[in-house]
């Protein structure tokens, strides 16, 4: 099984690549995915996030190494392992971050990656007809929904009103260039269906004769001959198979698996590779370095009225909602639970927000796998531009063994400060009159936690990944860069990395839409259409 373009990874970026490249019938495209198809109902149902997270379906179910600055905890680090990747299992948040994020990439030497450069690709991928056409796409493949104010959960409405009472502006569209304030959430769901990269990009293209999709295939290595990537070796049902790439190998396996595959192929730092008996092909010290992620903590607020999502999780109501979805594609499972959020500044004088906050109409622990059986809501917050930096490196030459993931969460004191100040800002919003008819007492951190030390201890004991890791195959021009601004691997021909791992710095929002933007832009680079 050979192709002109071999795409490794069927996630958010890989699905975009498969669609756009196979649009030319003269080009043979092969998409390789380690996980299964996403045909299961939960992958298509917008409200599938909680059951998918609880079951660990479509997920590599990675964990970090013990985190020194988070009380030595081993933290859950979910990544998509299914067609559609993380876009098939995530919380359906449409977020670009801030224009300044991308301008900073360009200022660091990545020509062609300023906000003005990437905006056309954000617009290309989305369909949000109510948005300002100067900033928003109206006819792209991914449909976007914004909840109506009149139908929002009362806790989400209170968040919008309370935020304004606390002095923050209401923003009509958080995905225009410079978001600051409170806003309705936008979600990639529509027509009672999750708008995953697989549903929106892969499904419309999968009947093309020149596109082949191989699931359940674990990539063992990229084959390098005379400094050129010529194909990949995969394991299918435990049997090795060699696949040749006539033009390029496009590595889109994500922030963990892309550096893992490079290291398994002998590309990276010798210290990470040779102890595992792997022959060095190319020394590239930045592979697996520069790992950044949003780490989040929540203020959990009891409420005095039964308006949270808790009632929706009773078995009889879940059964009714499931039947309603199956028969009529209607009911509570057709929308996302996330309806309101904020981008805020923890200090005056910042160019743009450094705190992102989600209003969540239920209280839970452990990524939603442990629901707190009380009426309540949460404000889940993360520092937008963390300074803590970690790494990913293999611990075996066996591709089925997870690499060592060490984000070094909270190792930078500034990351702790942002979350500590964020807790106090959120408490101030919860104290506004908008919550007077709802507010009970604080479930966590709890009224006793007021001092810096008490809040820091709460953060160390409770903070978790918000699922936005990037950076392990950094784009740039310095000696730690893995790819150049054309996303070509430095020192190896016919090999590009195209996913969130190429981000030199984490953007101030979520990473699913930026990952798809990167793939849209990469297609023009591959085809020679880039400006």
From the alpha-carbon coordinates, what is the Rg to the nearest angstrom?
Answer: 22 Å
Kindly state the number of beta strands. 26
Largest sheet data: 7 strands, mixed
Rounded to the nearest angstrom, the distance between the terminal CA atoms is 34 Å
SS content category: alpha/beta
SS strand fraction: 15-25%
What global shape is seen? globular
Oligomer: single chain
Output mean pLDDT.
Answer: 96
Count up the helices: 13
Helix fraction by DSSP (H/I, runs of at least 4): 25-40%
How would you characterize this protein structure?
- The chain is α/β, with parallel strands linked by helices.
- The chain is 26% helix and 21% strand.
- It has 13 helices and 26 strands.
- The strands form 8 sheets. Strands 1, 2, 10, 11, 12, 13 and 26 form a 7-stranded mixed sheet that branches. Strands 7, 16, 17, 18, 21, 24 and 25 form a 7-stranded antiparallel sheet that branches.
- The longest helix is centred in the C-terminal third of the chain and has 18 residues, at 413-430.
- The protein is globular and about 70 Å long.
